[in-house]
Amino acid sequence: MTRNPAANREQFRPENHPNDHFILTTVVGSYPKPKWLNRARDLHHGELEVKAADRASDEPRGSFDIDVDFDEGNWQEAKDDASRLITNEHERAGLDAVVDGEMRRNEMVEYFAERIAGYEFHGPVKVWGHNYFDKPSVVSEVEYDEPWLVDEFEFTNDVAQRPVKVPITGPYTLANWSFNEHYDDEAELAFALAELVNLEVEKLVEAGARYIQIDEPALATTPDDHAIVGECLEYITDGIPEDVRIGLHVCYGDYSRIYPEILDFPIDEFDVELCNGDYDQLDVFTEHEFTADLALGVVDAHTAEVEPVEDIVENVQRGFEVVPPEQLTVSPDCGLKLLPRDIAYGKMENMVTATRQLEAALDRGEVDLSGVAARADD
Amino acid sequence: MTELVATTTGLFPLPDWAKSELADLKGHQKDDLVSGDEPPAVVDQYDRARSEVVARQQEAGLDRIVEGQLRWDDILAHPLAVAENVETRGIVRYYDNNNFYREPVVTGDLSPTGDLAADLEAADVPAEELQAVIPGPYTLADLATDDHYGEEFLDAITEFLVGEVEQFPEHATLLVLEPSLVEEPPGDGADERASEAIDRVVGASAAESVVYPFYGALSEKMHAHLLDADVDAVGYDFVTDHEDNLYNINEYGTTDSVALGFLEGQNTNVESPDLLRQRVEWVEENTPAATFERAYVLPNTETFYLPTERFEAKLDALGALTRPEEVEA
């Protein structure tokens, strides 16, 4: 069953929070990488291929026939700088719980598979169009090899003024988005991975993390497997204290196939993409009392226009059809990494402005909460 | 003794060099995908990649050679994505996979494009080896959205496919992929119409026809209707569901020839030729009432799910299945 979100929510309220009401604002995790970081990665990998167009151009460019002098230490420094920069960018936008935009991670499955013994890579596979990922193969028992995210968290936590949220790819998605050459079935692989995720979450908690989000986008593709995800979450949250907030993020699926089942999951918060579909699936969540906190997507992660504050205010209010303000968190629908950076920033900034406006209106008693009240009377 | 024919389901992964070259040339967004009028530089890359995968199949020793459908950015929806009066809209999920295609919306009268025929011509494969691969009419209609035809939609898609197939160069086998018959099964009446539509499409080709539903097994009733179509071989995805497929064959019989989806199209684990041989024997032993003239052995799904290196290893295993002596040499 749902954990106890009320026991851990208040720690994210900033000291100087302007309103009595507090709707927690955060992001799902990923954020556009500055172009210089990608170029630094290329330098680090020694990828200096010069295109014919570059050669033909009269524009000055650096010569690549020299030792570029970019070693592991320089690459580490670049990632540290990017992490610091984006954490700060999240804070400037006014978010209550921040992430470093996953500046150190290349991709949500690859990053972890590279750190888990038992995985191998055989090359890129297509997702759509010319978008590929290095889908890994599980070729032997998966084992915990080296820490995944503790360094990332400690660095971010050190540079952040606000509480840090740690997104971590869930075991079901790690299993489902891999080729399984070793385990009898996907469930068995997912459970084995869940034990590793539990180990990592324990390490993160020990390092001071108080907000952990398990990303399970694969659940949307195979909703009939919700029981496997539920059991994985039991492993993951085993022994994790109540003051640690555990979220679950799912996106781009048919939620009627996983709700109300997810209310049985041991989570504090369910984070869901709904803005993209203009809240056409919101009704799914109103049939049974929503016992977890709802983290509602209020800006679209795949449109390159910043939504006006007034529109976002309306979107946030849609959340009150499911939960009262004290159970509502808001975030973009999904990771923002595919957007231009200025658009990503604009969305976060407007999202926070809209939320603070709405909180003030709630304080003044100007917001109609009858939808929630009606539900409470059921 | 069943004659084994080693072949594939087409829809190959691009060679790795082409993945990055074409991404650089075309871009990463929706509007950058294949539209049917690609610029010469893009056409050149696809021509080069196509010759490469044709040669690779020949090297592996496959009995049927496909052109690879490397241009099919929208996977099985491709034939519509390059047609007139079709808008390609948002990115939608491809069955229960972590793969996406652009939703083709039919907004006016459809007419055949010759796009598929041109790729088959370009493959330059002898007619007795050439295998054409198309989406079945039910699947293509299911993947698309109709804003124009209403109840006549399946009919229109069927005519469209007939028009495409009529332009094909001479080929040995026409493979019709019908995953939607499994994933979005037609109800009463629609199942019969799906079978009639398939019958019309395969009738447009003089080649041996293979209809392959996959991602599981057909319902009993759909299977029975499919056997009413004039199809030379029905295919069975034994990787996803061996029990129901076996049941369908034993309960209702099947075509004189069959196709057996035996290689995992969605797993990097490479099957040995011996294992494939054992699987054929297993089907023969477990279908005592049936004898098969010919069995097409193929991957159970499309193959673009695989990394290129493993895909090629699987081609080699398939080729060795029907050419064992060359393996020992």
From TrEMBL, chain A:
- Report the superkingdom from the record: Archaea
**Which Gene3D superfamilies does the entry link to?**
3.20.20.210
A Gene Ontology BP annotation from the UniProt entry = methylation
Identify the cofactor(s): Zn(2+)
Q: Name one GO molecular function term.
A: metal ion binding
Keyword annotations: Metal-binding, Methyltransferase, Transferase, Zinc
UniProt-listed SUPFAM superfamilies:
UROD/MetE-like (SSF51726)
Q: Which PANTHER family match?
A: 5-METHYLTETRAHYDROPTEROYLTRIGLUTAMATE--HOMOCYSTEINE METHYLTRANSFERASE
This protein is called what? Answer: Methionine synthase
UniProtKB/TrEMBL annotation, chain B:
Instruction: Give all residue intervals belonging to the Cobalamin-independent methionine synthase MetE C-terminal/archaeal domain.
Output: 43-299
**Keywords linked to the UniProt accession:** Methyltransferase, Transferase
- Gene3D superfamilies per UniProt: 3.20.20.210
In terms of Pfam families, this protein maps to: Meth_synt_2 (PF01717)
Which domain of life does the UniProt lineage start with? Archaea
Which stretch is the leader sequence? none
SUPFAM superfamilies, A to Z: UROD/MetE-like
Example GO molecular function: methyltransferase activity
GO process annotations (BP): methylation
What protein name does the entry list? 5-methyltetrahydropteroyltriglutamate--homocysteine methyltransferase
* Origin species: Halomarina rubra
Q: Taxonomically, what lineage is the organism?
A: Archaea, Methanobacteriati, Methanobacteriota, Stenosarchaea group, Halobacteria
